[in-house]
User: Fold this.
Amino acid sequence: MNFEGLDHIGIAVKDIEKSNQLFEILMGQAPYKQESVDSENVLTSFFDAGNMKVELLQATAESSAIYKFIEKRGEGLHHIAFEVEDIYAKMKQFEADGFRLLNKQPKQGADNKLICFIHPKDTNGVLIELCQTQTEEKEL
Ligand code: CMX
Assistant:
């Protein structure tokens, strides 16, 4: 098995403050974390959903992937993220399997993760994120 489990699903939203209020009602709790990821030009908030999380993402610049996504496809499900034990090993494996990786090295993502995306055109139109919880030994 390649994955440790589903870590989170990412939902692209236009106005994260409004969506936070909506999801607070839906999830029955406030987000446990809000974070700006400057490298991705996004504002994020995370809700605990039991054995996984829901991440809301709002673009902070027109260059952001979230901005382009919403322009093209509207708000909605943006990606699903699987936890992996060793992101370097999985990136190597998936690349050898023919999947196009959208970053050649793991990037610093939200929620203390090292992340890598697989091109959605290689996975039936769904953007897949690999993420590894960062430990001190694996910090970039
Ligand atoms: N899910 C499914 N399909 C997607 C998609 C997504 N999230 N984003 C784009 N696409 C589709 C587009 O609709 C388009 O399809 P068609 O050609 O059929 O219209 C195709 O992929 C190419 O899209 P594009 O707009 O021409 O190309 P982009 O320059 O926007 O690049 C992608 C798309 C996926 C390569 C780019 O968004 C990327 O590198 N994403 C990874 C990084 C990311 O998403 N960061 C934001 C989240 C960060 C975080 O979680 O912290």
Q: What stands out?
A: Strands lie at 5-12, 33-37, 42-48, 53-59, 76-83, 107-109, 113-118, 128-133. The first strand starts at residue 5 and ends at 12. The first helix runs from residue 16 to 27.
